[in-house]
Structures are given as C-alpha cells and as structure tokens.
Amino acid sequence: PHQGDLTVDLALPVGTPLRSTDEILAPVTARLQKEIPGLSSMLVTVGSERDSTDTRERGEHTARIAISLRS
What we know:
Blueprint: E1 5-11, H1 18-35, E2 39-46, E3 62-69
Antiparallel strand pairs: 1-3, 2-3
C-alpha cells in the first residue's frame, strides 16, 4: 500500500451468513465515512473466496475495507 492507503480485514465467527456480515459491517463503514478526515475512497468487500496466496480463513463471515485518504 501507498502512504495514505489502509486495508482492514475483519472476521466474524465461521458460519456467519453473508447477510449478517453485511448488516454488522454497515454501521461500521457509515461511521468510518463520517469520522475519517480526508477520506478519498472506501471499498468494502463482504465475503470472499480464499485464493492460493492467502493463508487466512475466508468466506461469508469475512470482510475487507480498503481506505484511501486524500494526499
């Protein structure tokens, strides 16, 4: 990542349905949008497949938030 870029990985208990993960994450992302000064963009991915380079557990119970700040 470049300076001003931040990625946050979140994991709920395995077996958490995608819909629940999304519902739990919604107020978190809304608060981040309000509270982070200089926010340029935020990409939220809820649920993902594990790829060959990822050693962490992934699935409907995981999420990733990619944040970019204005420079």
